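Quick one, tokens below. Sequence please?
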């Protein structure tokens, strides 16, 4: 399933690498916030 999510998560992981966050990958959470912001802007 990585082929579906990786194109969206990879750019975020380059900005906020999990290695610098103690191994915690925050990219899915950040992506959810970005999607919600876009959704609020559109509607």
């Amino acid at each position: 399933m990585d082929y579906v999510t990786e194109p969206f998560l990879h750019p975020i992981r380059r900005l906020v690498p999990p290695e610098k966050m103690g191994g915690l990958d925050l990219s899915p959470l950040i992506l959810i916030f970005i999607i919600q912001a876009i959704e609020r802007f559109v509607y």
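The radius of gyration is 12 Å. The chain has one domain: 2-42.
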